[in-house]
Structure formats: C-alpha cells, structure tokens
C-alpha cells in the first residue's frame, strides 16, 4: 500500500497531476492557475510540468472560462476550470445553468460535456465579502449537473480524479478552510478509489442520532460527535460527498438506525441542502423517526462581514444544541 | 493602425503568426515592453520631473496644464503624499493583524489623484477595491475604508454623501452600475445644460484584468449606445494578480474604445498632471453631452496584488526597478522644484501632515469596535421580514442560553 501524508490541497494537486498524466485530454484552466499555481496553490507546479497548452491562464472572465470549457469539452477535451472563489461563479451562472447543465439532454445524448468546475467554498477564513459563500444549492437544484464536495485529503485525491473521469459536468466544491489539514492518503492506483463518486460515507458510527453533513462541516461534526461521546451520546456522522445525486440508501439506512437526524451545513438553511434532506428523510423514514429532522446552518443573511463569522457559522455548540433538541423529543 | 501586426503589443513578426497554428494550440507568450506606454501616451513630465515639449499626444491637453497654478501643484502633491501614507498605514495595519487584507495602491497614486481631482462634487465615482486615492479626493475618511478589510462591515460609508460608491469586489460589476447611473443623470436633465454647476458625469474604475469581464464590455456597449456621460478609467497596472496584460488582451484598452464607438486615450498614469488634464477633458466632454471616453492610465502596481499575494512567484525584480524610477511622487516633486512651485518648508510640512494622518488612521483603526453580534441581522431587507426576524429571535435566545449556563 502506497500511503502518504498530505494536506487536502496537496491531495487535489496530486490528483490533478495523476489525471493529467493518465489522460492527455485533461486541461486545466482559470485565473492565475499557471505560474502562481492558483491563489490557493492547488495547481502549483503543473504548468511547469505540463506546459501552457494544458494549464491555461485565462483572461479574467468567468463566463468566458466556463463557456470556452464547454467548447473544449465538445472538442474532446476534459477541461477542469477553476473558479477562484465561490462568490465569483455568478458571472458564469448563465453558462452553467443554460448550457452546461442542458447540453446532453437537448442534444439527445450526442453531446457530452466531461468538464469539472472547481469551486473553493465556505467561510471561516476571515476573508472580505464574496470570498466565503456556499452556493451549492443553486447548482444542486439544476438537473444535468453533478455536485460533489470533498472533505479530507483522501477524498480530495480520489474524488478529483473521479470527477474528471465522469462524462457529465461536475461542480467540485473544495472546503477552503480545510485546505491545510493533513491526513494519510492511500495513493495505490491498483486498488482504485475507496468509494464511488456518488456515494456517501459513514465517517463515524453511532446509534443515538445521525449528523448529515459535507465539506468543511464534516470535521466540525466529527468534533461534535466526539464531544457528545464524552457525555455518553453516540452520534453517527455521514459525509454526503455527493450533493447531487444524493446517496439515498446510506442516508436512509442511518436515519432508520438512529431515528434522529440533524443536517449541518454552512449555507443558509432556508432552501439549502438541508431542506431537501429533511423532506426526503421525513418522506422515506417517517415511521422510524423519533424526532423531526433538524437543520443547523447559516442564517438567512448575505454572508456577513468576517467579524460575525463565529456567530454565523455552525459550531460545536450550535450542533450540540440541536442534538439536545432532537434527543428531547 | 491599419496593419494588424502593429496593434499586437510588442509585435510578433507577422510571418511567424502563420506557422503558429501548426505548432501549438496556444499563442506563444508575448514579450512586450510593459515599461513603455509608446508614443500615443499623453505625458507632460518625465521621470526626472522635466516638463516635456508639446507633442501630438499631449497638445490637446496642454492648455489645462498651463492654467494650473503653484497652489494647484502644491495641493496635488499633498494629495499624492497623504494617499501614499494612508496606503502604507493600511499595509502596516494588516501586517499587525488589525486588518484581514489590504490591496495596496503603491505606484498608482498619480493615476488616482489625477482622476479624483478632475471630478466635481456633483459627479459620481464607481470604484473597484483599490481606489483609496480616489476616495481621498472625494472626501471619504480613510478610516472608513478600513472597515471592510477589518471585517466589521462590507463598506460602511454612505455613498451618496461624497458621491463615491462602495467598493466592488466582483470584478466588472460596477461598470454597469456606473453606466446606469449616468443614464439616470441624462434623464434628470443634468447633462449638456451648459451650466457648469449643474452638469454632471460619472467615472467608473477598473483594472486591466477587469477589461476581460463581460460586464465591462457590456457597459461599453450600453454607454456608447446611450451616449452616457461616463468616463471609463482603466488603471493598467500591468498585472491582474499573476497574469500579465497579454493574458487579458492583445490590443490595449485605449485602442479598443474605438470599437465600441467612443474615443480612448492612453495617459502616463505616473504623471499626475497628465492624468488630471486628460480626465478633466473627458469629464468636461461627458458633462457637455458628448458621451463616453475611455482613459487607460498606464501605470504599475509596485507592491503585491494584496497582502495575501506573493509576486516573486510570477514577476521579476528588474521590472519593478524600472518602474521605481518612474515614481509619481518623486516626479512631481522634481517638477515643482525645477519650476519653483514650492520651497523646502512646503515639502517638510506635507511630510509632517502625513505622519499625523498615519497616526490618526492607526489610532482610529485600533479603536474600531467589533460589531455587536445582533447587528448581523440588520439591513438584510429594507422592510420587515418574518424569516430574518424569527432567526434573530432564535439567535437572541441561543445567546441568552449561555448567559444562563454561566450564571449557574
Ligand atoms: C469576478 C471576479 N473574479 C475573480 C476575482 C478575484 N480577483 C480579485 S482581484 C483580481 C485581479 C484583478 O486585476 P485587475 O483588474 O488588473 O486589477 P488590479 O487588481 O490589478 O488593480 C482577481 C482575479 C474577483 N474579484 N472577481
């Protein structure tokens, strides 16, 4: 087993490198992805090794980046476009919603768009506005797109490669505040990816209640589960990994097992991923539930100035508070 | 500009262009001189402060410069120095953990002061996020610029107080707002009346990278079609984070204006007199109802993109050295000394004033309180909103639960 300790950022970098080595049609594109290696250094060193033809510094224009990626994909390439920060995806919204999502459908399957749009997302890093948003629900709401999020170095390494191999367009959400966290990654190619791209993962087993989450909140939820264990409560933690499609089996099995679910994400709860999950779980697991599905998320506000972050973002206390509420039913 | 090879920056030999397609799918990187704005650039004072002869490029603006007095020169110089000092203080405060981020304007003082000084009170400015010098000229208290970078607000000044819009972080967005605002001025009848107190115009700021955005290009189209009283001001500081000009465009911004149907001018962005003169002429034309102008201020970002950036990864030191020689403040001072516009006391006094300003900014930044948590819920909507109200109540109850626990 070839195993290496690396950060989530390095996991992505190594995964991108692998994908580029394996398939000459993989091209990276975006603002500053070349010499600088991207503002988060995810593409560091790749232009040096693969050249400017395959690691393309694009003009500063997101609609342009995604729109040309569509053309490249139609021409047989596998573009991986970097959006510099979550809040800058909106100039490309039209391309993603109107064209990327619908091309396969309206071409009766003749046109494939095997492209990945990488989005560093979420808050907690003290950034200025438009640099901390969680906009995954806009895209998960749109049929034709796959939306996934990694949460640790191993998933970063494997999922980015799987996303690139996928023939559908994938929005790939990277938890930016976890970029520098390290863990052991099994990079043994022969063994292949531990999980399919669409699968959820039971991060921690438990019997009293299930925390369903993804991205940056996986770590926070795991810590909450550890804290709860100290008080004699057994929480299960599920990392969705894929937000669209959802791995219903894993979610339902856990909900039925524990009878209580709290969904946790950074995005505003109103019409966020948690709304869909609560509705689904209630519809499918109603007779197994001991309490309504609860949600912990951001408030229904624009992402606030960074000095409010600790109040806006779900933390251990808020998660455990909801756990208490659920257990009190 | 009839030969297309001429408009290529730095001019790749045209015979090479034909073979290019076969070898690679992307163009070779264009080595062009980003330290020289070329003969079409309007300039009045050279790097050593010498007043330049009248030439084809600067002739149309010479009268404006001739009419300036020693007092004008002094107050412009003062602005340059104070703005630089304010910027340096922002940088220092970030390094000391008082601010989360600071985008420095070092090197771009003349571009911003020249442009800012050409605005009249009734004009309106739409900045990006680096326009601290324009803010200064509009009378915005520099301390107010810090809030956003400290994370206590998203831009806590009242735009309408000084006709200076909030900073806009999403590149290009404000260009359309500026265009719409200018269209509003037309409809309000404050354009082309001939009354200098009444006629107004708008100025919209972006960087060289920003010229690639859809919004920027759409703003050009709208402003042109509407004949809007608008001056597009592109600060070409040669870099968009790590990307040089040739990754953003193959024809400089000022030449592109023509294609949108209005004039474009390139001005030496480190020559405050030239920037002032060119901007004043463009604003006068806009106010008079003659429509938009695009000004490209050819300048240089001396520092990092922001305090989070490391420019050694992508640019060479010798380039920075060349630009250091073109320093806008050194140049203005040289010009003033050579022409007897000020004595040594004046310069000493401005430096002292800069020290005071820096001390005040520092003090008031450190005294800037963290916002009260509950104010997070303020102003999401102009009217009542039940969801926000309910979450606000939840938040109050949640906070109170800690107090109760603590009391136990
Ligand atoms: C729509 C959008 N995409 C990306 C960014 C991230 N970003 C911030 S500044 C910048 C470069 C801007 O360069 P330029 O327009 O030349 O202005 P300068 O910073 O040099 O003044 C980028 C890519 C952004 N703010 N907005």
UniProtKB/TrEMBL annotation, chain A:
Q: At the top level of its lineage, which domain of life is listed?
A: Bacteria
Cofactors (names): thiamine diphosphate
What InterPro entries has UniProt attached to this entry? THDP-binding, Transketo_C/PFOR_II, Transketolase-like_Pyr-bd, Transketolase_C
Question: Gene3D superfamilies annotated for this entry?
Answer: 3.40.50.920, 3.40.50.970
Kindly list the GO molecular function terms attached to this UniProt entry. magnesium ion binding; oxidoreductase activity
**Boundaries of every Transketolase-like pyrimidine-binding domain copy:** 6-181
Q: Which UniProt keywords apply?
A: Oxidoreductase, Pyruvate, Thiamine pyrophosphate
In its UniProt entry, what is this protein called? Pyruvate dehydrogenase E1 component beta subunit
Q: Which organism is it from?
A: Calidifontibacter indicus
Automatic annotation (TrEMBL), chain B:
Q: Which InterPro entries match?
A: Alpha-ketoacid_DH_E1_comp, DH_E1, PdhA/BkdA, THDP-binding
List residues of the Dehydrogenase E1 component domain. 80-357
Please name the SUPFAM superfamilies in this protein's record: Thiamin diphosphate-binding fold (THDP-binding)
Cofactor(s) essential for the protein:
thiamine diphosphate
- Pfam families per record: E1_dh
Molecular function GO labels: magnesium ion binding; oxidoreductase activity, acting on the aldehyde or oxo group of donors, disulfide as acceptor
**GO terms classed as biological process:** branched-chain amino acid catabolic process
Mind listing the UniProt keywords for this protein, alphabetically?
Oxidoreductase, Pyruvate, Thiamine pyrophosphate
Q: Any idea what this protein is called?
A: Pyruvate dehydrogenase E1 component alpha subunit
């Amino acid at each position: 087993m070839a195993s290496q300790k690396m950060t989530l950022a390095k996991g992505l970098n190594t995964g991108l490198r692998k994908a580029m080595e394996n398939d000459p049609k993989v091209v990276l594109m975006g603002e500053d992805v070349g010499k600088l290696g991207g503002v988060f250094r995810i593409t560091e060193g790749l232009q040096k090794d693969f050249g400017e033809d395959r690691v393309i510094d694009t003009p500063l224009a997101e609609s342009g980046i995604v729109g040309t990626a569509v053309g490249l994909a139609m021409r047989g390439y596998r573009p991986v476009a970097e959006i510099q920060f979550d809040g800058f995806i909106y100039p490309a919204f039209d391309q993603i919603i109107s064209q990327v999502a619908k091309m396969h459908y309206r071409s009766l399957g003749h046109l494939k768009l095997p492209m990945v749009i990488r989005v560093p997302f979420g808050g907690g890093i003290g950034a200025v506005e438009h640099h901390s948003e969680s906009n995954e629900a806009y895209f998960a709401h749109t049929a034709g797109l796959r939306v996934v999020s990694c949460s640790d170095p191993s998933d970063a390494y494997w999922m980015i490669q799987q996303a690139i191999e996928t023939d559908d367009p994938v929005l790939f959400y990277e938890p930016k505040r976890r970029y520098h966290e390290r863990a052991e990654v099994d990079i043994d190619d022969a063994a292949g990816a531990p999980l399919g791209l669409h699968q959820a993962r039971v991060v921690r087993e438990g019997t009293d209640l299930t925390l369903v989450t993804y991205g940056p909140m996986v770590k926070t939820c795991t810590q909450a589960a550890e804290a709860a264990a100290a008080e004699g409560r057994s929480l299960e933690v599920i990392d969705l990994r894929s937000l669209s499609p959802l791995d219903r089996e894993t979610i339902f099995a856990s909900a039925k097992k524990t009878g209580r679910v709290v969904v946790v994400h950074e995005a505003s709860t109103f019409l966020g991923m948690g709304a869909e999950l609560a509705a689904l779980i209630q519809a499918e697991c109603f007779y197994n539930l001991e309490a309504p599905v609860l949600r912990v998320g951001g408030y229904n506000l624009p992402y606030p100035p960074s000095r409010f972050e600790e109040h806006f973002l779900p933390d251990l206390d808020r998660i455990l508070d909801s756990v208490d509420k659920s257990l009190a039913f | 500009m009839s030969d297309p090879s001429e408009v290529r920056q730095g001019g790749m030999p045209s015979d090479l262009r034909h073979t290019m397609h076969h070898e690679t799918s992307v163009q070779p990187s264009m080595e062009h001189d980003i330290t020289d704005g070329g003969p079409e650039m309007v300039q009045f004072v050279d790097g050593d402060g010498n007043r330049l002869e009248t030439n084809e490029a600067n002739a149309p603006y010479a009268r404006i410069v001739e009419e300036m007095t020693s007092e004008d020169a002094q107050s412009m110089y003062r602005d340059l120095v104070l703005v630089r000092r304010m910027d340096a203080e922002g940088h220092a405060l970030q390094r000391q953990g008082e601010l989360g981020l600071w985008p420095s304007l070092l090197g771009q003082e003349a571009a911003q002061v020249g442009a800012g000084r050409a605005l009249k009170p009734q004009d309106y400015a739409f900045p990006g996020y680096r326009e601290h010098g324009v803010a200064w000229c509009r009378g915005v208290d520099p301390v107010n610029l810090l809030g956003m970078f400290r994370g206590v607000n998203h831009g806590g000044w009242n735009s309408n107080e000084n006709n200076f819009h909030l900073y806009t972080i999403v590149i290009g967005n404000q260009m359309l707002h500026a265009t719409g605002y200018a269209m509003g001025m037309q409809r309000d009848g404050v354009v082309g009346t001939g009354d200098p107190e009444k006629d107004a115009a708008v100025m919209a700021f972006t960087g060289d990278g920003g010229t690639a955005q859809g919004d920027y290009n759409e703003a050009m189209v709208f402003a042109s079609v509407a004949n809007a009283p608008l001056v597009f001001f592109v600060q070409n500081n040669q870099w968009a984070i790590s990307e040089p000009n040739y990754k953003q465009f193959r024809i400089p911004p000022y030449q592109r204006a023509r294609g949108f149907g209005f004039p474009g001018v390139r001005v030496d962005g480190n020559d405050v007199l030239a920037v002032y003169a060119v901007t004043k002429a463009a604003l006068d034309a806009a106010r008079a109802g003659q429509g938009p102008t695009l000004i490209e201020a050819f300048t240089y970002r001396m520092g990092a993109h922001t305090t989070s950036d490391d420019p050694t990864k992508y640019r060479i030191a010798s380039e920075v050295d060349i630009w250091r020689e073109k320093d806008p403040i050194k140049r203005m001072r040289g010009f003033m000394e050579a022409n007897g516009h000020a004595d040594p006391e004046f310069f000493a006094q401005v430096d002292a004033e800069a020290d005071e300003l820096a001390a005040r900014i520092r003090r008031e930044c450190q005294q800037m309180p963290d916002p009260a948590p509950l104010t997070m819920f303020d102003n999401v909507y102009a009217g009542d909103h039940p969801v926000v109200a309910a979450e606000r109540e939840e938040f109050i109850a949640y906070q109170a639960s800690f107090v109760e626990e603590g009391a136990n």
